[in-house]
Amino acid sequence: MLNFQDKLRAVWEKNNSLLCVGLDPDITRFPSALEKRAESIFDFNKMIIDATHDLVCAYKPQIAYFAAYGAEEALARTIEYIHENYPQVPVILDAKRGDIGSTAQKYGEEAFVRYQADAVTVNPYLGYDSVAPFLEYKDKGVVLLCRTSNKGAADIQDLEIDGTPLYEKVAEMISSKWNSNNNCIIVVGATWPEQMSRLRALVGDMPFLVPGVGAQGGDVEKLVTAGKTTAGTGLLVSASRSIIYAGSGDSFADDARSAALDLRDLINKYR
Amino acid sequence: MLNFQDKLRAVWEKNNSLLCVGLDPDITRFPSALEKRAESIFDFNKMIIDATHDLVCAYKPQIAYFAAYGAEEALARTIEYIHENYPQVPVILDAKRGDIGSTAQKYGEEAFVRYQADAVTVNPYLGYDSVAPFLEYKDKGVVLLCRTSNKGAADIQDLEIDGTPLYEKVAEMISSKWNSNNNCIIVVGATWPEQMSRLRALVGDMPFLVPGVGAQGGDVEKLVTAGKTTAGTGLLVSASRSIIYAGSGDSFADDARSAALDLRDLINKYR
In chain B, what residues touch A62 (CB-CB under 8 Å)? Predict the structure, then answer.
């Protein structure tokens, strides 16, 4: 079985895509074709996945949208469905976990054993020993928050340590110490292209998960130019709401496909 | 219905206790009286709760231990059981959530609507707008990581901004801006009494959730002396493994009670 990084490289090429589609199933926004209830979540995800699988480099289910509805079973089925039908597409469980070692180990089991995700997002605030239990899954990806896409990111992540913002310190730490199994990815918001170019210079070819295009307004040209590697890859540009809620009628899956195609091609234009 | 802070003050007094018992149900460590399987989790918790409810100021279920086993139902039943039988004891869901606003809102629903917790632990790394959706639940407690109990805490939390460690900056931010609904609590590891006294001076009477005694080795005299308020309260000293796995035979619940009683009284000795 391919490890996460190899799987990612293969799908970047096969689907000619740096687009990661976020699965944030908000039942209040479900299309008219589906009942607005937790029982529809799997069907909604399945239709989005079937319509977009050849256009993406990853799917990123956001666990909060399942947990709020008690829909863990739908999350498990969604991931299983992707693995069985589109095994070339890796699944990143967006959970932003982070806790002391003994607890982090249980979160590792949640992500990688229970849900069989290929990667999980993790918060670095508790330091190395809180991340180590995830890093030990050598074939999995550990996606660490660095500079997030939200406005409040600046509150803590931009505080300067001897003239260097915290998020750069975090990136340096990840790159120089935490990445010894070569399974780290960092989260860099699309909304901050300047920070992104500094980070690209700091961490070499380490992949970036880039939320913040679409609903959050990040500029695709700027982010791709700032974030791509010399090979023209290195990015998982993540969009959720702008893709999965592109339409709200019977043709919502086709609408999602169109939105995914447009964004994939826009990203490719600047690679 | 009492809000979290009032409930906490009332139970501090009623049970004469600053002890918070962490419910970390690791099935591999279950006593011989119970089968080592996920189906035993609720029974294990129930027996611990029945044996300790008059000695504690809060219970703190750690969601990772439920999530790893797919035991969300057992978590919901555990919290419901506490509310129904010991309504004076608040429940802190230890989940360390943290995400952008729209997702944080879903995590808020998970903690406060689905699980009906009285408080939830939250990671501050993403800044104010990621915490605001939790703070808006005015009657609930929002327990923010500040200086955690693990060794790796120093990696990021101790980095200095103009001579002030990050965790102090975080505490100042919480105290001066995030606490306008008076529903914040901060996490300060028992393993760092010096940092704890600085923090107590910075944030006034804000309660501290203090993990790190027991299995992690924090010194009770030092932490209580450093962390208590002038009223001799202000602390939720959290112990999990040293209480719930105090015994492993048929008398495990009595053993948990003895361990809880000893720790409660030791804490009280230094108030």
Answer: 99, 103, 106
How many separate domains does chain B show? 1
Q: Give the tens place of pLDDT for each residue, A216-243.
A: 777 999 999 999 999 999 999 999 999 9
Tell me: the pLDDT tens digits for B14-46? 999 999 999 999 999 999 989 999 999 999 999
DSSP state letters, B134-184: HHT-TTSEEEEEEE-SSTTHHHHHT-EETTEEHHHHHHHHIIIIITTTS-E
**Does the predicted model carry a pTM greater than 0.95?**
yes
What average pLDDT score do residues B213-242 get? 92
Phi, psi of B118 (to 5 degrees): -85, -20
Angle separating helix axes B72-85 and B41-52, nearest 10 degrees: 20
Q: Which long-range contacts (CB under 8 A, 24 or more apart) does B196-199 make?
A: B196/B147, B196/B223, B196/B226, B196/B227, B197/B226, B197/B227, B198/B168, B199/B146, B199/B147, B199/B167, B199/B168, B199/B171, B199/B227
**Which member of B7, B14, B96, B169 is catalytic?**
B96
State how far the Cα of A36 lies from the Cα of A39, in Å rounded to an integer: 8
Tokens representing A77 are: 């089925």
Q: What per-residue confidence (pLDDT) applies to A191?
A: 86
A140 is catalytic: no
Domain ranges, residue B253: 4-269
Residue B121 is given by DSSP the state E
CB B12 within 8 A of CB B233: yes
Helices assigned H by DSSP within B86-127? 101-108
**Are A67 and B106 a contacting pair at CB < 8 A?**
yes
ipTM attached to this prediction: 0.97
Contact A100 B150 (CB under 8 A): yes
Mutate to test the interface with A, among B96, B166, B177, B178 (most CBs of A within 10 A): B96
Query: Are A148 and B100 contacting, i.e. CB atoms less than 8 angstroms apart?
Result: yes
Please name every residue paired with B60 in a beta bridge, in sequence order, or none if there are none.
B22
DSSP state of B188: E
CATH code at position B136: 3.20.20.70
Taking the C-alpha atoms of residue B271 and residue B219, their distance in angstroms, rounded to an integer, is: 14
B249 Rama class: left (phi>0) / alpha (psi -120 to 50) / beta: beta
Say how many CB pairs under 8 Å bridge A and B: 168
Which tokens in the block code for residue B75? 């978590």
Residue whose structure tokens are 């990696």 = B155
Greatest extent of chain B over all pairs of C-alpha atoms, in Å: 55
Structure-token pair, residue A260: 């995914």
CA distances from A150 to A258, B29, B69 (A): 26, 41, 32
Closest-CA residue of A relative to B112 is A68
Residues in chain A: 271
Distance from CA of B14 to the nearest CA of A (A): 31
Q: d(Cα B19, Cα A268) in Å, to the nearest integer?
A: 57
B148 touches chain A (CB under 8 A): yes
Q: What is the pLDDT of residues A112-132, one digit of tens each?
A: 999 999 999 999 999 999 999
